[in-house]
Amino acid sequence: MRVDAPRFVRRRLGLTPLIDVIFLLLLFFMLSSTFSRFSQVPVEGGAAGGAGGKRPDAMISVRAGDVRLNGEGIETGAIAVRLAGLREVGAENLVILVEQGATSQDFVSVLEAASQSGLKVSVSRRGG
Known about the structure:
- The chain is 31% helix and 19% strand.
- The protein has a domain at 56-125: Nucleotidyltransferase, domain 5 (2-Layer Sandwich).
- The chain has a 5-stranded mixed beta sheet with strand order 3-2-1-4-5, with helices on one face.
- The protein is built from 3 helices and 5 strands.
- With 128 residues, it is α/β, with parallel strands linked by helices.
- The chain crosses the membrane at residues 12-31.
- It comes from Pseudohoeflea suaedae.
- It is a single-pass membrane protein; Single-pass type II membrane protein.
């Protein structure tokens, strides 16, 4: 009795699984390369220099999650309104003091609100 060997049919290689794997690899590399959140990058200030002898009209202190205007705690969203009020009563100069531990997102939020106020803004830092 003669037994014929089964015929192997050559199957075409499907592209769908290959495309799926490529997209999974792309997704993996995109997610693994962005672990450093922008708000967690430490803020570096400039070197200390000779400040003019004029005292600032207002001072904003920026710490990690805490913003103070002239020593009083304030929400980031209310800074622009308060600075506009100070501008109306004659304030001209504003110093933003970036404390150690402040994140760049805290600083940028304050700086954005301060730039809308029309005051002359200076930035300083405290701490190592």
